[in-house]
Amino acid sequence: xxxxxxxxxxxxxxxxxxxxxxxxxxxxxxxxxxxxxxxxxxxxxxxxxxxxxxxxxxxxxxxxxxxxxxxxxxxxxxxxxxxxxxxxxxxxxxxxxxxxxxxxxxxxxxxxxxxxxxxxxxxxxxxxxxxxxxxxxxxxxxxxxxxxxxxxxxxxxxxxxxxxxxxxxxxxxxxxxxxxxxxxxxxxxxxxxxxxxxxxxxxxxxx
Length: 207
What we know:
Helix content is 78%, strand content 0%. Helix 3 packs antiparallel against helix 4 and helix 10 runs antiparallel to helix 11. The radius of gyration is 20 Å and the shape is elongated. The model has no long low-confidence stretch (mean pLDDT 94).
């Protein structure tokens, strides 16, 4: 049942996958693989927007395997979605302690610090993420936000440009760069970026 659920989840049939995972847990609730079945169940709930059920499944998974970093990382992401930022920091810190120097863990932890109004910790954490190579536009954007919160506008501007180098259609980066340029009196450039932010934020399916 757990294997069947995994195959269904890979096919993005998450509702069917959840049924298979639940059946597997009924048949073998204490098996060595139960934590992973609960983890996958929580992931499917999260993808379908059933965040409270995802929280329950991931909490049960963590109780069975408290030192598994991917559970803590998923909990960190989930608590960001739920707006429970202190818990997002706690779980992401645990994931970082368990895994160390993992780019996605550091990105999530940096965002959690930022949402929890700890921009200095966010800056340090996101710098760690960027130092590991294979940078993502989203990481540069979050780093820029931390720098802006610390009043480091020139550095933030460079990070926003770095984000756009990696993803020229990232609307949040265009918008925030437009705001930075507007405050600096560079109104023509600001207008171009704000217009681009509006254009790239439109879902092509809705156009």
